[in-house]
């Protein structure tokens, strides 16, 4: 099967219905052994230093992976994508634009999805058949998410990796599902780390000891992570070492399409990431209440227009928000690590 790249999550059902292999260029870039070197080489080619690291990374990764067909999301993602498209076109690649309508207009969304079907040579009937066939897989991904916030059997890092990979199923849907089945079977055997009962979330219990009654260690801080997936390689590990757990990954969860709509077009209309920030905030607020989240980490990529939305997010969310910024691939820098540790300590004191 031919491989087709894309710049952010698109209706993967159309790609699969066309008999093509989906390739999320972001996943290809960040899972390389040398993502930092890719950014350096892109800058050596002339990319401005003040361009998003993801843009620089996916430009070269598409070329080096031998991908010559790319679905480029022109509305609902990065404002730099237009120039990136033109650069790829100058390199001789076949570029297919896709636009999410800002106001979630269902008719315009259907038009865009059907144009993609035509461009890839498939039909609505075949696409909807794939959509129905993916329902069991998406339910398994929902189990991963539930096991993250309900009982702590899945870590924030594991949640991130499985959900973000659902944009293209690592290029092999059957293998992805088989690995997911094995992971779920193993995770089910783990000891629960944070049952959603009163004892886990309320005051710490008393317990006996040779020296008298003591309090058990209080539960770790429950965090939500919002914003695009991090370019840092060890963010979740850094958070856990500080004594907290990420129990909600906003955009990764959206990539995996866990909302059971029963309709292809409605699924992508309810997908919050490409539309206005207010829809995202409503979704985040619901999850804060459901998952009993203590604080929010808002990740912003350097030089990204979405950082401006932080002003609205801070105004609307009614709990502490720590905004951090990442630029290049690599471990969390010392300054950000100290800020994360201080944030977790503050939330622990508040609890």
Helix content: 40-55%
User: What is the terminal separation in angstroms?
Assistant: 53 Å
Order of helices and strands: EHEHHHEHEHHHHHHEEEHEHHHEHEH
The tally of domains stands at 2
Question: Which features does this protein show?
Answer:
351 residues, 2 domains, alpha/beta, Rossmann fold, 4-stranded parallel sheet, single chain
Task: Describe the fold and architecture.
The chain is of the alpha/beta class and about 350 residues long. It folds into 2 domains: about 5-135, Rossmann fold; about 195-350, Rossmann fold (3-Layer(aba) Sandwich), CATH 3.40.50. The protein has 17 helices and 10 strands. The protein has helices spanning about 10-15, 25-30, 35-45, 55-65, 80-90, 105-120, 125-135, 135-150, 155-165, 175-190, 200, 235-240, 250-255, 265-270, 275-290, 310-315, 335-350, and strands at about 5, 20-25, 70-75, 95-100, 205, 215, 220-225, 245-250, 295-300, 320-325. A 4-stranded parallel β-sheet has the order 2-1-3-4, sandwiched between helices. Helix 3 packs across helix 4 (about 55-65) and helix 8 packs antiparallel against helix 9 (about 155-165). The longest helix is centred in the C-terminal third of the chain and has 17 residues, at about 335-350.
């Amino acid at each position: 099967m031919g491989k087709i790249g894309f710049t952010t999550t698109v209706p993967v059902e159309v790609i699969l219905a066309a008999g093509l292999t989906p390739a999320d260029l972001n996943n290809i870039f960040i899972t390389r052994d040398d993502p930092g070197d890719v950014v350096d080489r892109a800058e050596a080619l002339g990319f401005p230093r003040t361009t998003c690291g993801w843009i620089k990374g996916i430009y070269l990764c598409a070329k080096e992976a031998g991908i010559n067909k790319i679905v480029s999301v022109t509305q609902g993602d990065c404002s730099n994508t237009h120039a990136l498209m033109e650069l790829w076109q100058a390199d001789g690649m076949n570029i297919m634009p896709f636009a999410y309508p800002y106001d979630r207009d269902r008719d315009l969304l259907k038009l865009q999805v059907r144009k993609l079907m035509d461009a890839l040579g498939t039909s609505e009937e075949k696409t909807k058949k794939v959509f129905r066939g993916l329902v069991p897989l998406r339910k398994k991904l929902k189990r991963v998410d539930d096991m993250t916030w309900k009982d702590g059997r899945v870590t924030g890092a594991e949640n991130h990796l499985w959900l973000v990979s659902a944009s293209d199923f690592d290029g092999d849907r059957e293998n992805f599902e088989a690995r997911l089945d094995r992971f779920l079977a193993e995770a089910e055997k783990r000891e629960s780390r944070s049952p959603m009962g009163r004892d886990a979330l309320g005051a710490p219990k008393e317990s006996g000891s040779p020296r008298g009654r003591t309090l058990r260690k209080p539960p770790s801080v429950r965090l939500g992570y919002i914003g695009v997936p991090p370019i840092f390689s060890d963010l979740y590990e850094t958070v856990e070492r500080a004594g907290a757990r990420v129990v909600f990954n906003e955009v990764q969860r959206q990539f995996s399409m866990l909302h059971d709509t029963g309709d292809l077009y409605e699924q992508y209309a309810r997908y919050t990431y490409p539309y206005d920030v207010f829809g995202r905030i409503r979704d985040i607020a619901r999850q804060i209440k459901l998952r009993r989240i203590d604080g929010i980490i808002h990740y912003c990529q350097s030089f990204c227009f979405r950082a401006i939305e932080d002003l609205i997010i801070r105004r609307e969310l009614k709990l502490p928000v720590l905004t951090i910024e990442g630029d290049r691939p690599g471990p969390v820098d010392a300054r950000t690590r100290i800020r994360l540790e201080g944030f977790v300590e503050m939330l622990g004191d508040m609890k």
